[in-house]
Amino acid sequence: MDHLRWNLVQTVIERLPARMMELTQDKNRYFALLQAYLSRGVEMIEADTLVVELNANDQRRLQNNWDEFADAAVPDKQLLLAEDPIQTIGGLRLRTTDNLIRLDQTFEGRLERLEDRLYQVIVERLLPPPRSDMSL
User: Fold this and answer.
1) Bridge pairing between strands 78-81 and 102-106
2) What is the pLDDT confidence band of residue 8, given thresholds at 50, 70 and 90?
3) Which one, 3, 47, 50, 136, has least CB within 10 Å?
């Protein structure tokens, strides 16, 4: 039974990259998520100016209206769009201009940091707890 449960969890984990790719195609939901990542990330780094690193696709989509996008997420900080894209499915990386502090808010980075909690949530959703009243 444990082996079956583990296989179910692994199947969900293996499907995550495809689901993340789907999310990046839904511009409204994905850009709202990016802004939330920006907002939360900026709270963690005490600096007035930060550099935001995106993948090539996101960089291309946001390049022309970056200032408006960034101001909507974090109006009181200066967020610079990095020149060079990063390799990621989605999300972003934040860093100080001197590169001494970095925060990985990419999908892959968040998956790695939240792995234990993710497994727990998957198990809770896929496999309900056993019932205590087994009366027939």
Assistant:
1) unpaired
2) confident
3) 136
